[in-house]
Each structure stands twice: as structure tokens, then as C-alpha cells.
# Entry
Amino acid sequence: MQLEQLEIGIIEDDPIMGDSLAQRLELEGHRIDWWRTGSDAINSPAMLDKQIIICDIRLPDITGEAVFRLAGKRGIAIPFIFITGFGDIDQAVRLMRRGACDYITKPFDLDLLIEKVSQHAERQKRTGDHIPILGISEVMKALEIELRKYAKSSLPLVLSGEVGVGKEKAARFLHANMSTGSAPFMHFSCRLVPSELHEQELFGEKDDYKGFPGGYVSRTRNGTLYIEDIELLSPESQSRLLSMLDAKSFPRESERHSNLFEGRVIAASRIPMNELQSNPQLDDNLFFQLGVLKSDIPPLRSRSEDIPWLLFNILAELNSLGDSTCSKISAQAEEVAISYDWPGNILEMRNRVQRALALAGTDELTVTDLFPDQAHSQSDQFPSLAQVREDAERRQIRRALVRSEGHMIEAAKLLGVSRTTLWDKMGRLGIASE
# Structure
């Protein structure tokens, strides 16, 4: 089957390999740019137009990993397929954890590469060629698709998820995808604002005309009103919010007529959705009005594929804001991060990376930098053979799941076990199946 023409970039210093790749891909009908060094690729304006990059991990000037990292820092979020030797497979797996889409091991058949290019082109077509914003795990990709569908309407939404899991980021993602994405995004925290001021802050008050800019509701206009920790909203404010959602308008004490509300309300809670409905602090009717649409954001520990990707992106973001020269995370630190429980989720991860950047003495973050508490406790303990074996199995299963993009049958084949055995081991080792 002939696919539509793609813009493909090749980063390969070997003239024979590069020429073979370019000729074959051009025969398939694709437009090709071929760079001999990583620096040439990064500095080329043409790289911005590429739909897929095929990159050798070993280059004469910088590594393929450095190209991928620099591309990410410059906002070039293009799928990378890495060409790797057998000894570089661990590095390729790390890159896939950080968002690279695939790798192929030398020597390889060009037909296999063409097949991989076709697969990723089809995947881009199915997902609308969107760059991952919330995560690369299947569950977060599904959430992005769900939120894009929600963006077509202005119906209220309830988001639930643990502390630091990314509820506000999901709300802002939804807002940005709405036709009114340029309108205000108003964030009201029920936890930070004293309850006796909730009603005044949200709906305004009788002294508005003296210079008070109006409440959060009126300032939302046709944008999004994001209410954090909705169950903590004062009873009076809950009643007025319910009336506003019913009537699509809100009265203010300073005015005799009601004001039309044309925005969208997104309510968030750290309480699980099934418990929020029966929470005594939240009015039942308000929950049902707000919960026309609902989305749960899973904790970080249940989507380990996102952990290296998030670490990589947070590190790149913080580096772009400051003058840190630390741009890498050690393989051991990644492994510890994947096995860590992350009780504070993404918020905790961001804090750990910030602290590590402030104290790190090299250009690479280590286990000691990111997990000083854990590094100290581990130094006093000698793990048993059973613990070492379990840790090794856990790492290898997670690698297989990343390599197979979460497909259980393919992961089982990679590991040389039956699907039932893989399920049993995942359950025993506490690995989520998402």
C-alpha cells in the first residue's frame, strides 16, 4: 500500500548507509533531507518541517541522544526512529521512555525500516498528528483524545486525581483546544481562599462599582472557570454556582439584572470520582450539574511509561528558564525514578528536579541528586538475592511494555513467556497494565 508523501529527515554519517536509506525512501515517494552530523540537523530550518526523523545513535560530533534532547529543547517534537548497534539497545530503550517512537538494530532489512515508517505514519494519521502534551502512555493519550472531544462543547466537566497529578494542566489543555482558547482561563482555589470569601471572590459584591474588578465568574467571560478542590467550596457559593449553571446567568448585588454566563466550568478534586459523588461537603445536585462530563487522571505510579518522559521534559523546561548546564539524567536515576512510588506525582517530580539542578555538580543528574533520601537509606542496606531478582524482573518487564507500547501479547513474546505468566508476574511485582 502506497502511503501519502512524508517529509523525512535522515541523520547518518555513514555515506553508504545514508545513501541507501535516502534512495529507498525516495523510491517510496517520500521527500528526504539527509544530514551527516547532528549539528547540521539541529541547525537546519528544514528539520522543523519533518514528520519523522531517522537518526543514528552514534554520530561524529554529538550523539543521537543529544540531537533528540536538543530538538526537544527547541520545541521540535518530531517522532524519532533510532538506528542502533546491539551495544546501544539500553540507550535506545531510554530514549523511547523519553518520547522517541522506535528503534531498529543494525544490521537490518530496509523493508523493516519502511514498515516502521509506515506504522508511525499511520499512527500519526489516526491521532491527528498531535504532539503529546500530558503523557506518552496509552492512558494519557486516551485522555488527550477525550479532552479534545470535550473541547467541541462548553459543557461542565469534573476532573479527579491525586495531589500533583496534573489536573490544572489537563484543564488548560482542554481550554487551549476550545474555539474560545484565547479567552481568559480563571483559576479559583477553594483551598487557598478563606471559605468566608468564596462567594465574594467568585461572584463579586456590592462595591464592584468602586473599583473592584468583579468576581472570577464575570472575568471568565466566554473562557474557562477552573475551580480547584470543589468539595471545599462554601455552601452559599455552591448554591449560587448551581443556580448559575441552571440559568446560564448570575446576578450580582451591584446590579438589578442578571449577567449572562457564556463560559465553561471545570471543577477539580483530589477525591476519587466514585467517592466525590457521596462526599457530604458537596451538594448532590451541584455534582450532577458539573459532572455532565467526567475524567479521571491516574497517578504517576500507575503509568510508569510517562515517568522518564516527564523527567526529560521537566529538565528541559527548567533548563530553558535558568542557567543550569545539567542536561542529562543517568540511566540508574531513571530506573530508580520508574520504581519510585511518587506520592506527590508530577508536583513532587518537579520539586525534586528543581532541587537536584540547584545542587548538582556535573552535567548529569544522578540517583543521589534526585533521591538523596533514598540513596542514603539504600547505602545502609544490602539487598537480598530475591530483592535483586525482583527488581531486575520489574525493570525488564517495564522495558518490554515500553518496547511493545503496552501490547501484552507482544511484550510476552519479547520476554519469552506466556501472556498468563506475564500477567501473574505483573500482579506480583505491582506493575500496572495500562
